[in-house]
Amino acid sequence: MINNIKFLWYTKEEVVRLSEKEVKVAASLDKFGHPVPDGMYDLAMGPCDSDQVCKTCSLDCLQCPGHFGHIPIQPVINPLCYEMLFLILRASCSNCFKLKVSQNEKLNFYLELEQCETNLRTTKAETFQEFEEILVGGERRNGHCEEEHHSVALTWLRKASTRGRCPLCNGTNKKYKKGANMRILCDDPMDGLVTVGNRDVMKDVNATYANDKVIFDKLLKIGDDEKGGIGFLFLEVLPVTPNKFRPIKKRDGFVFENATNAQLNSILTASLLSERDEKYSAELQSLVSLYFDSARDQKQQGIKQLLEKKEGLFRQNIMGKRVNYSARSVISPDPWIGTGEIGVPLVFANQLTFPERVNSTNLKKMQELVTGGPCAYPGANFVLEKTDSQQKLLSLKVLSKSRRRQIAARFATSRCEFTVYRHLVTGDRVLVNRQPSLHKMSMMGHRVRVLKNEKTLRMHYVNCKPYNADFDGDEMNIHFPQSHAAQAEIEEVCLTDFNFLVPSTNEPIRGLTQDHLVVAAVMTSKNEIYDRDEYHHIVHSALYEEVDGPLVFVDPFLTVSDGESRRVFYSGLNVVSTVLVNVTKGLPTSLTHRFKSKITGETVIFRESEMLTGLLDKNTLGTAVNSLIHVCGKLFGYKICNRLLTIFGRMVNGYMALRGFTLGHDDLLLDEEGEKRLQNELLVRNRRSRVESENKSNIQVLLRETNGALSGLQGLLASSMQKSFLGNNILAMVQSGAKGSMVNVSQISICLGQQELEGKRVPAQASGKSLACFEADEYFTSPAAGGFVYERFLTGLSPGSFYFHCMAGREGLIDTAVKTANSGYLQRCLVKHLEGTTICYDGTVRNHRRIVQFEYDGDADPGASVGVLAAQSIGEPSTQMTLNTFHLAGVAGKNMTLGIPRLREIVMVASKNIKTPIIKMAVDEKMGMKLEQVFRRVTASDCVGQLWAEEQFVKERNAVADGFVKRVVVTFRILDEEGAVVHAIDNLFVSKLNRMIKVKSTSCGIEMNEQDEQVHETKKEENSDDESTDVDDTTVDGETETNKTPLSESGDSDSSESEHSHGSSNLIHLRMTKSGLYSLEINFQPTMTQNILPLAEAVLSKIVIREIPGFAGGKMDTTRPNHPGPATFYLDGSNFTTLFNITLISNNPDVFYNSYSNDIHSICGHFGIEAARNVIVAEIESVFDVYGIRIETRHLDLVADYLTRDGLYQAFNRQSFDMDDSILQRMSFESCFERVKDASLFRLSDNMNNPSANICVGNMIHNGTGCFDLLYDLDI
Fold first, then answer.
1. Please, are residues 1063 and 1081 in contact by the beta-carbon 8 Å criterion?
2. CATH level 3 topology of 501-544+570-588+602-658
3. Which of 218, 941, 997, 1265 has its CA 20 to 30 A from that of 1035?
4. What are phi and psi of 353, to 5 degrees?
């Protein structure tokens, strides 16, 4: 078991010593396809074809492990260390070859590095004597901080690199700069920038290291036993991987060498050339850099590209492990198999084996299995014979029956230890998994049932929801554990018996569904009665495997005597009662409980395990909270849940075998009254060819009326069908909770209704039509033209309606595909950070050594991976979220960021500038009205009542295009803030209009020349500068607000610029034609084709006349007008500093200190980290609340505590990992190459305390049952 990994550099001598061949020839294969001696495919590095033998170990292609070679090259800068080398070079004096820090600074530099390593309590040292006293007698504590060491080292080197003169020799230093392709340039006063040769750089750096060896060894953690010093900063030899890792490719009889060979051949060639001529050293450096990182050349694949990304070697081969003793196949449904079982085909059972130790208790059985061999079932495939000195594995497949019988006979006589690899048999425990593994229930333990005549894995419907599986071609994996300890772990921890509740909500996730629910409802209805034979058949179907001993039967509900004959009849309640009485027989208590029926709303009564009233439906047999199955689990232990689900499923199967269940055409038909209402109240609206007015708002009125009529019909749908209640099988499906909803029934029997895209009507195209089959004016006169489908599935859809329906469906498909990737990455970020967070034996929750919580708010089993559970509890439900925004009523029509984008803001980015910041305050109505006036954001659009534009071509002197220009006269009617608006239009309008015209033209693919882009303008003839744009302080009931921002455009850096554009020939005139009416004349080039009016409206809405800095407005919550108590006031912004400076707020501190904001950074900065932590919990809850998803608070608390673990609000991303965290964990997450660079540069160690690190090296992880050792002896 590997306990520690330290990242160090191989010296030149070590690389040569590990190598079996020096590559001298820049070639791989000759013209016949044979390896070239001393070339890249020299056979000393292993065979490269199936018919070759290794020259080093004399093994063939399959058995040879491969051997390294090496290429000697001229010195180049190590690409992994270029940044550090450059920093050291600039921090070194080019005269005395020492670091440009004084002797006193070096002492303190060393002390700071020592403090990072040993937690030395230290102060600054002024003399060497003080330095020695602190170093020898200073108090030290356990632990070290790699992050601080990294920061201290870089801080001191950067400080030294900025000094022009050396404080030691007072000499002036060279100025070094970075060059392309990892070159180093020197700024020479005479020759300018000159490339510094690698040998010169190496000479200077080595000289500096020799003079300041102590500080460099401390800085880069170079041990006393390391001989290379800082030689790792340069490369003089490149290792060549074995031939088997650079395989040749064959195609059409031709042999092609690996792409890596081409890179190595180029490096070798450049090295040979630079040996003769120094001018080739730059090319050599460039080629070596590309060999490590080929980002500059996409045609090549460097080491970085081979390692990183999902398909890279690290995640694909080091983190991802191929496993034995596993099988994968398509899953098929099996309603008769137990809910805790998995059906395994015989073809799998013959191949999957378990190592069974032979002992006195299983001797006879093992002898029979070995004698039968691999061809008989059950049998055995191998026998392992072990002595004190050796072990031998015998394959029974190649042995005769007599030989197998001899081996079996030796089990009783030989002193050797025998292990029989027997076949998988019914009753064995296996792990079953479906990918993606989004939560704990994606991998559960099942008992095996071997099915001899099947070819697929078979599973009960109950397990579909935990695995998120269906039977449309899904594949699943089974894993057969290879020890009795692992089998016991599945039996006691992983079985489906212990996975009835989902950790995220602590609610049931396993229950009967679909056919089982609807048939259970029909079966227990009052209309269904059974004679004795049917009753016994159904009861036997349910209990034939589950009850030992004689069955207990209940009394029939009806006895009919006909002369000498006597007939008895049973109800569905009698059947259910019989089942429960037999299942609870012998238990300490019986079932007495009341449930509420989903179908009728009536009470379902169980007393002493007998069902007295009601129906079975989703509330009793499904995944509802406090269902019959859930309550039995609470009473008798959750192991009984699997039994009950299996029994009730088989009970329904028995009923369906007798009477069946089907859906007919008559189940979908409305009755006569329903059809009449459909015609009169809904379809007649489709025959309106035109609404009364051409006003666009009237279509909204018609849509409201149509949707209201549709809602009315849907409300009466259950009573308007020809067959009603449980006699209508489609209604029975919906009402029992088996499948679908009344909306689905409505689409079949009434109409499809409004088809929406992004929550709106189907948009019109440029022609004004939504589809070509409509007239242009119908979009605003007919609901059907905007996507309202009056047809139903029962009678068929027209082509246009079918197209609308496909548009809405396609949106859902695309949304699902996009969200899958986003939600998957979100969960990966959470899991990677929290995978090592577990409960310790002292009750604390820790991530390695760091305490995250002092007490876990839940079941505190030591070793429990509560971090992974919390990550899965947020990640898995996020896959159900589809919307990006949600309308927040009462906030000026504001759309709040929700769904995946909001979760990304909170947990993945920890954004300081969120998209939709708000502040909520509880205020009374009077104060709220005052605040609305104070925070009112006034734009030019708010102050302009009317706006129109006129265009004409006029002849102008000095104009292009034969003297004609396009003159546009824009007229404004200004109703409020006249002086400010006039000044704003005069200063900002034309320049912003010009910019918007340019943007619009570019987006439409129109290329504008310089003259087309320019809008010429001059100042008006009147002196408008005399009109001040400063707005007087706004007074609201005696409250004066002075911090208004006039004439600013929120978020636009151009708002502070003059933005005047003067022209010498073309004039712009802004003049007042009458009171409040202003016209603006603008001359454009005649080729300008944009419609000015909508652009002018958009520009006016962007020009801000007055606002409070940091806020875009405020609004009272209008959704609860008669609600008692204070109302909620919403501010569009999150600047608490500005908010407190408002007189009305500062005079009411309770309002301020009880306010709430969704801006977590703002809350943290003003109210502290604990307040920010509470906001994180509340915000994540609010995101999921919109979709009706509930997550247990303990998971959200843990996530919030981790995000604020250092007293700062940090995100779940690669930047928030500390250098003290596991290196392999960070490498397995993202930026593997960068993590290798940092770890190697500072010689970091990984203590293998993280699950990812242990997986990489094949160790058992220390979470869960891996946090302790189990003592057992199979020989007892």
1. no
2. Enzyme I; Chain A, domain 2 (1.10.274)
3. 941
4. -125, 160
> For 980, left (φ over 0), alpha (ψ -120 to 50), or beta?
alpha
The closest alpha carbon to 946, from 970, 973, 982, belongs to 973
pLDDT digits (tens, 9 = 90+) for 39-61: 999 999 999 888 889 999 999 88
What residues contact 1205, with CB distance under 8 A and at least 6 apart? 847, 850, 852
Question: Can you tell me whether residue 639 is helix, strand or coil?
Answer: helix
Query: What pLDDT digit, counting tens, does each position of 1007-1044 carry?
Result: 433 333 333 333 333 333 333 333 333 333 333 333 33
Identify the band that residue 1098 occupies on the pLDDT scale cut at 50, 70 and 90. Answer: confident
Greatest CA span in the chain, whole angstroms?
130
Strands in 742-835 per DSSP E: 753-754, 788-789
Which ranges of 596-696 does DSSP label H, i.e. alpha helix? Answer: 618-621, 628-636, 639-659, 672-678, 684-686
| Secondary structure of 79-91 in HEC code, one letter for each residue | HHHHHHHHHHHHH
pLDDT in tens, 1165-1197: 889 999 999 999 999 998 888 888 889 999 999
On the CB side of 143, how many CA atoms lie within 13 Å of its CA? 10
Q: What is the layout of strands, in order, in the sheet containing 192-195?
A: 176-178, 184-188, 192-195
Contact call for residues 292 and 302 (beta carbons, < 8 A) = yes
CATH fold for domain 665-797: Topoisomerase I; Chain A, domain 4 (1.10.132)
Quick one: CA torsion of 570, 576, 579, 583, rounded to 10 degrees? Answer: -150
pLDDT 10s digits, 516-533: 999 999 899 888 888 889
Task: Give the 3-state secondary structure of residue 165.
Answer: strand
691 within 8 A of 719, measured Cβ to Cβ: no
Instruction: Say how far apart CA 7 and CA 946 lie, in whole Å.
Output: 72
Half-sphere exposure for 1268 (CA within 13 Å, toward CB): 12
Q: Answer for the pair 643, 632: CB distance below 8 angstroms, yes or no.
A: no
Beta strands in 492-648 (DSSP E): 501-502, 507-508, 529-531, 558-562, 565-571, 593-596, 603-607, 610-613
**Residue 364 structure tokens:** 């006879």
Structure tokens at 504: 């995220």
501-544+570-588+602-658 and 665-797, same CATH topology: no
- Dihedral pair phi/psi, residue 706, rounded to 5°: -65, -45
Residues in contact with 647: Cβ distance below 8 Å, sequence separation at least 6, in sequence order = 542, 543, 546, 579, 583
Domain 353-423 has CATH 3.40.50.740: no
Residue 31 pLDDT greater than 70, yes or no? yes
Separation CA 211–CA 2 (nearest Å): 38
User: Taking the domains of the chain in order of start, what are their residue ranges?
Assistant: 353-423, 501-544+570-588+602-658, 665-797, 938-995+1069-1106
